């Protein structure tokens, strides 16, 4: 028996059906306009007038939420987090770590692996740091920032069973080209961020994407357009953008959209423990933050 959502607005990324239907069981069977809908005897009708049906969201950059942090090293908590994200419409997530001691990162990675074995919407790991800039470290603890260490990276990839799918790094750091080569060999997305790279240094990199555009990176300046300029001008780069009304102004969002376009922008949450709470003083890793 199939279920059918009727009288809803169906948006699938390619088309926008103002009044449509969606037939599915464990997979989508068919979608179309209500004017073309033919009910079948075993259909279970779910009438959704004035509702919008979209594909599940994929969050490429999520640290935490609902009082749960990826760096706590607790797999059961991460499974709980993934279930709560699913209720928000997030059907896939890269659980994101942050710069801490090598031992703390290893422990966090072990817990994410354990959780991913029991949660289908944990798609992998985004390693944010520790190979980032000490100038644009942002919430990353500066005392744990380091240059790329190939042996350390190998050990983390071994712990995860190749579940590291993306890494945020500063392309101006020592051994950055070695990092890029390793990522290419292991199908890891290379994301420039937490970086003071000049435009020239950014163009020399072989990155695939930009981490949270505008935030914790060399800004757009008329004498050197920095990492932001590289995001604007390099049409091969995907670009993260946090559209929460706090990290980036509405005007900056509009500029990014007009220049980069929807095909290259990835909306991410970069969320921390305070997600899901009205006002809590919580942390991201070791860094305290006021969620008000």
UniProtKB/TrEMBL annotation:
Question: What EC number(s) is this enzyme filed under?
Answer: 3.5.1.25
Q: Which GO terms describe its molecular function?
A: N-acetylglucosamine-6-phosphate deacetylase activity
The reply on keyword Hydrolase is yes
EC primary class: hydrolase
Ordered alphabetically, the record's keywords are:
Hydrolase
Q: Which GO terms describe its biological process?
A: N-acetylglucosamine catabolic process
Q: Which residues cross the membrane?
A: none
Q: Name one Pfam family in it.
A: Amidohydro_1
Q: Where is the Amidohydrolase-related domain?
A: 52-258
Q: Which family does it belong to?
A: Belongs to the metallo-dependent hydrolases superfamily. NagA family.
Protein name, please? N-acetylglucosamine-6-phosphate deacetylase
